[in-house]
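Subject: mismatched residue count in predicted assembly?

I count 342 residues in my input, but I want to confirm that the predicted structure covers every chain. Input:
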Amino acid sequence: MLQSMLGAISADLAIDIGSASTRISAAGRGVIVDVPTRVAILEERDGKRRLLAVGAEARQMEGRTPADVRVLAPVQEGNIVDFEVVEVLLRHLMLQVQGRRLWVGPRVAIAVEHGLSDVERRAVRESAEASGAREVLLVEQPLAAAIGAGLSVDEACGSLVLDVGAGHTCVSILSLGGIVFSRRLRVGGDHLDEALVHHLREHHGLLISMTAAEEVRQRIGSVMPGGPNPSEWVRGRHIDSGYPRALELDANELRMALQGPVQQIAEAVLQSLERSPPDLAADVADTGVVLVGGVAALSGLDRAISRMAGLPVIVPDEPHLVVVRGTADWMGRNQRKKAAAG
Ligand SMILES: Nc1ncnc2c1ncn2[C@@H]1O[C@H](COP(=O)(O)OP(=O)(O)OP(=O)(O)O)[C@@H](O)[C@H]1O
Ligand SMILES: [Mg+2]
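Triage response: the counts match. Full output below for your records.
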């Protein structure tokens, strides 16, 4: 009774704090926040830190800041590395969602990595509580991803979820509502961009920014040969002369540059099948791989993985929002179960 009154005042929130983006879904409203996981701070002379900007505004400052301003990325390769900054980020976003400071904070569910230690789980919980949450539930990301993708996770049938985010990839096999196997890989969108930056430096003596690499990858990137071959100008600095220079990059060359990391992702899928119980591996051979995360939108990635791993690959709608939607769903189920249990 009290819980439902509090819930009416302050809506339940599901949160996915990714290396690149933080998403919040509010009960009854869907995904209402999708912002870069960035916080800009001003370091004052007396050592105090003053908050300057959060989200998109902070992201825009990246690479363009004066010496006393820092743009912080508190999640790296999928791990929270700065809990204090996460607390600042969550406080700001929760206030934005609620429109004003309420006397009762929201109940929140946060999607966390599989296999966190108790100390790490406590640290996540404490950051969320310090940012104003009245109750904090944690759900493991692979489970949230599977629920968000619409898989029937409680059945005795293995499913494989491949989440390719900005900072990392996670391959997980689930069955009977639990995670049977999960493996993390330091390969994600950021690493694809690094591979392109490296390629242009080695083959053309051109130094471009990670942001420029991400933009061109998102616009013309494709990892399967044989399709159209659009091209685009990329701008950077010529290493020898130091002068600004532009180069016309086509999709075929871009595909070659991305080959290594894509291969690593496909190999991780195969290895996880090799290491999982044979019955579950057989289930996955039938049901296929569910590919989620922002990089799932990279043209041809599903077909490339399908070809390399020899399995069907399915990409749900808006793959970058699957984890936060699944977290919201899981939270709703959890509350209903609790209510039913009295
Ligand atoms: N249309 C697109 N084509 C190619 N890549 C895309 C597209 N849209 C987003 N991405 C990439 O998806 C990545 C972001 O994915 P996502 O939002 O799942 O990451 P995250 O959850 O913040 O990170 P992580 O899960 O690794 O902590 C970025 O590298 C971005 O470039
Ligand atoms: Mg993610």
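The longest strand covers residues 178-185. Marking this ticket as 'not a bug'.
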